[in-house]
Amino acid sequence: MRTLIALTALALAGCGARPTGGGEAAAAPVASPNWPATPATETLTSEKGPFRVTELVTGLVHPWSLAFLPDGRMLVTERPGRLRIIGNGAVSAPLAGVPAVYGEGQGGLLDVAVSPQFAEDRLVYLSYAEADGDNAGTAVARARLEGDALQGLTVIYRQSPKLSQGAHFGSRLVFDDQGFLFVTQGEHNKRAMAQDLDKLQGKLVRLRPDGSVPDDNPFVGRPYARPAIWSYGHRNMQGAALHPVTRALWTSEHGPRGGDELNIPQAGRNYGWPIITYGINYSGLPIPEAKGEAADGLEQPLHYWKVSPGLSGMAFLADGGSAWNGNLFLGALATRELIRLELDGDRVAHEERLLTARKWRIRDVRQGPDGKLYVLTDEDDGRLLRIDPPGSTP
Ligand SMILES: [Ca+2]
After folding, report:
1. Residue-wise pLDDT tens digits, 66-82
2. Which residues does the UniProt record annotate as the domain Glucose/Sorbosone dehydrogenase (predicted)?
3. What are the domain boundaries of the chain?
C-alpha cells in the first residue's frame, strides 16, 4: 500500500498535477502577494561560485509564467486566472480583461508573452486552458495592455475538439526572430492522439501573430493534417526558449515515469510519443503503444532524463559577466530544483542541481534585462525569486 501511495504521489508530482491539498484551481486561495521592503536574501554555493537568492514577492497563488515589459517591470500569471504587473517593489491588483479559464487539474492561466513589437502594438499574448462543457483545450488570446487592463481581447488559437479533463495542456509561447509564434501543447493524456496529424493535441504549432497559419508550415496542403502543426509526437511541453546564439527553438517535455526530454523541434518531424519513450507508465508497466526507445523515422531527444525532474519553464542565460553564461536553466516540479546545464554546442555537457534544499516546485525561470534569473515557485504561497549568478554585477 505504501508503494502504491508513493507511486501515486510520484505520478501527480511528475506530471505537474495539483499539489498536496489539491483542487486549488477550482477553489483558489485568496491571494495577497507582497513585495517586502527588505526581501529575504541568502547566498548559496554552486560549482561555479556563490550566488544570491532573493525572495522578491511571496503570496502569489500558483504563479505560472513571467514576461518582462520594455520598462523593466514583469507580467506574471497566476494559474487560477490572474495577471499582475510586478516591479519597482510593488505588485499590482489583478488586471481586468483576462480570459475566463478552465481551472481543473493542470488547467488555468498559463503562459504570458509580450509582442516583439510591443512598443508599437502594446500586445500581450496569453495561453490558457479554455472550457467547453466538461472538457477543455489549450487556447491563445492576445489583447492590448492599456494602463492596468487588457483591452480588445481576441482568441487567436484554440484546440478543437476540446478533450482534456485537466491534464497536459502545455503551454509556452515563444516568438522566433522571423516573428512567428510557437505554441507548445500537451496531448491531454490521450497518448495516441500525439501521432494523429488531424488533431492538435500533442503538437507544437507555428502561427502568425494574428493566429493565421504561415504558408510554409510543413503540413500546409496535406490532406487530413492540421496546417498549424510544426512538429508532432509530443507528450506535454511546458518549457520553450530561443537559443541566444543559434536562435533555434528549444523545448522541454514531460515524460511519463522517466523520459523527460529536451528537443530542438524541426519542421514536420515526429518526436515519437508514445511510440518511443525513455519512460514507463506511472503504474510501473510499459506504455502500451511503446515499441522501445528508438525507431526508424522517429526523432531521438537532444537529451533525456531517466528519472523525471518534471520539467517546466526554461531559459538560457546570456550574460557575459557571469560564470553561468551560456548555461540553460530548467525548472523542476517533481524533484523541486533548478537544473543548470552546461552546453557544448547543442550537446548537454554537464548538469548541476540548484536550490535542492529549498524543495520548491520551480514553475518558471527567465532572464531579466539586468542579466539576473527570475524564478517562480508553484505553491499556494508562491514566490518570485531573483537569482544573482556567480560573478554577475550587483
Ligand atoms: Ca520524444
Report:
1. 999 999 999 999 999 99
2. 61-386
3. 2-28+61-337
